[in-house]
């Protein structure tokens, strides 16, 4: 029998007792007199009988209906209590209630799972506090019973998210987050306390794993030479690894919340912006090279591997890049080496002018541009007259110095877009784009004027003069080798008619072109210079 049923029977019994006492008090003396014969029935007794009938047929039914209402209300209260108990037992959090002395008077099954207590009812304060060891998760120091959330709440404190590490005698261990509050009566006196405990064991385990992972990553980041940076979609740096201080001289705080482009060389910002745009639009990893600012050493080259960090867009069911991860390393020395190798591969070591390889690459591109624009392209084959005499008289060092001066004079008398290459020995090739015949003539005259000026070598003045042959693309030829060969033929004709002059190639050049273009004749002419 439940507590509510017991209470119901007690109330019903009291009402019946009261009713019986009223009847007895009202009619006992007369009923007894009638029963023993001391009082005889007479017409004057009808009022008494009427009172009795009133009590039995009027008052008694009212009392009966009242009792049935009380019974119905009690049943409703019992259902609500059962409903609340069902909720209480099926909550995802553990709930505990203590009285004013700290004795555990009520708890749900979740608490049993948390601290492995099998009691269903009353548990004294000393027992439930001693059965389980309570530790502070941070310091791992034991917490005194009086400092537990429920006991703090009994003192009027409002406890929020007090974390506990609990160990029961049966070996159950849990991390709990507890909220607690006191319970008061209608006069605001504290009569107990209630607590709600949430199991955060998995969360703590994840936090410990993340903490250990972060510790390892931080150790790696602090001891690596690579640069790691996070940039948001607007180009603002949200994280910079400590290695930035070692490699580029800046503290982490000097990078974070700053625009990444502000640290990039102005000439390379387009490269970096293009990298960002491709990362955000394609979502694929990309590489780039550009210069960034060193705090004390000017500009340094870095090689960058950019990867988009995506987050799921549940509304569009797509992956949207949210941030960009940049992993970089300094490559200044490598770039210097590459430049040196490029210089060695494509530039003449003595004059720093482009060599034959570079000439071939440039001429292919120049021809392609000429095909698109419809303009003319002129090639000049130039040979120095008098160079052998200087070489023989003053030595090879003087000959080398002479070639350097000639190279500088070439650069001074040509347009910025013109191209000059050392073809070999004392031979040079000049490529002129977007220039007509008269324009090539003016350039040739300017070259003759500049190169014919005296040059001081070892305190002696020497004079050399150029012989220039000129051919046009595509009129004279559409092939590189043939175009240069015809310019070469025209140059030898210019040399044969007196040197220090220029000659345009045309099909009806005198027969000297076929003789002087012979390789054997070329060798002989070299000795004649």
TrEMBL record:
Keywords assigned: Membrane, Transmembrane, Transmembrane helix
PAS domain span: 213-283
InterPro entries xref list: Biofilm_reg_signaling, GGDEF_dom, Nucleotide_cyclase, PAC, PAS, PAS-assoc_C, PAS-like_dom_sf, PAS_fold_3
Domain GGDEF: 375-507
Alphabetical list of SMART domains matching this protein: GGDEF, PAC, PAS
Cross-referenced Pfam families: GGDEF (PF00990), PAS_3 (PF08447), PAS_9 (PF13426)
Organism domain of life: Bacteria
Keyword Transmembrane among UniProt keywords: yes
PAC domain boundaries: 160-212, 286-343
Bilayer-crossing regions: 12-28, 48-67
Gene3D superfamilies in UniProt: 3.30.70.270, PAS domain (3.30.450.20)
Xref: PANTHER family: BIOFILM ARCHITECTURE MAINTENANCE PROTEIN MBAA, DIGUANYLATE CYCLASE DGCP
Protein name as annotated: Diguanylate cyclase (GGDEF)-like protein/PAS domain S-box-containing protein
Organism: Alkalibacillus filiformis
């Amino acid at each position: 029998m439940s507590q509510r049923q017991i209470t119901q029977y007690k109330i019903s019994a009291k009402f019946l007792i009261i009713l019986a006492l009223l009847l007895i008090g009202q009619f006992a003396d007369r009923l007894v007199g009638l029963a023993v014969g001391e009082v005889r029935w007479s017409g004057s007794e009808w009022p008494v009988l009427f009172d009795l009938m009133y009590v039995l047929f009027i008052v008694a039914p009212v009392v009966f209906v009242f009792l049935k209402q009380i019974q119905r209300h009690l049943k409703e209260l019992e259902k609500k209590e059962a409903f609340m108990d069902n909720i209480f037992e099926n909550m995802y959090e553990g709930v505990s209630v203590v009285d004013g002395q700290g004795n555990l008077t009520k708890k749900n099954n979740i608490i049993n799972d948390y601290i492995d207590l099998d009691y269903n009812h009353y548990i004294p304060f000393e027992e439930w506090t001693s059965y389980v060891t309570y530790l502070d998760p941070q310091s791992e120091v034991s917490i005194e019973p009086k400092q537990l959330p429920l006991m703090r709440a009994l003192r009027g404190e409002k406890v929020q998210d007090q974390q506990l590490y609990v160990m029961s005698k049966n070996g159950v261990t849990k991390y709990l987050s507890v909220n607690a509050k006191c319970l008061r009566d209608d006069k605001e006196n504290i009569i107990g306390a209630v607590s709600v405990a949430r199991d955060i064991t998995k969360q703590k385990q994840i936090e410990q794993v993340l903490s250990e992972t972060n510790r390892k990553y931080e150790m790696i980041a602090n001891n690596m030479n690579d640069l790691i940076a996070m940039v948001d979609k607007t180009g603002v740096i949200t994280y910079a690894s400590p290695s930035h201080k070692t490699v580029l001289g800046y503290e982490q705080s000097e990078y974070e919340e700053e625009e990444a482009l502000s640290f990039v060389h102005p000439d390379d910002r387009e490269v970096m912006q293009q990298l960002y745009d491709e990362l955000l639009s394609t979502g694929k990893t990309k590489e780039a090279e550009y210069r960034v600012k060193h705090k004390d050493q000017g500009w340094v080259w870095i090689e960058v591997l950019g990867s988009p960090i995506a987050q799921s867009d549940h509304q569009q069911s797509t992956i949207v890049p949210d941030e960009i991860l940049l992993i970089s390393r300094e490559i200044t020395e490598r770039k210097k080496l590459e430049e040196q190798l490029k210089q060695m591969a494509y530039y003449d070591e003595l004059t720093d002018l482009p060599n034959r390889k570079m000439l071939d690459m440039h001429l292919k591109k120049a021809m392609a541009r000429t095909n698109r624009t419809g303009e003319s392209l002129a090639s000049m084959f130039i040979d120095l007259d008098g160079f052998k005499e200087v070489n023989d008289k003053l030595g090879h060092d003087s000959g080398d110095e002479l070639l350097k001066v000639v190279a500088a004079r070439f650069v001074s008398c040509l347009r910025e877009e013109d191209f000059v290459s050392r073809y070999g020995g004392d031979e040079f090739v000049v490529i002129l784009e977007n220039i007509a015949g008269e324009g090539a003539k003016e350039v040739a005259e300017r070259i003759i004027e500049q190169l014919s000026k005296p040059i001081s070598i070892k305190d002696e003045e020497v004079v050399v003069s150029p012989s220039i042959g000129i051919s046009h693309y595509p009129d004279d030829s559409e092939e590189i080798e043939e175009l240069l060969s015809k310019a070469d033929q025209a140059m030898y004709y210019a040399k044969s008619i007196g040197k220090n002059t220029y000659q345009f190639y045309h099909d009806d050049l005198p027969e000297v072109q076929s003789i002087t273009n012979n390789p054997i004749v070329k060798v002989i002419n070299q000795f004649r210079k």
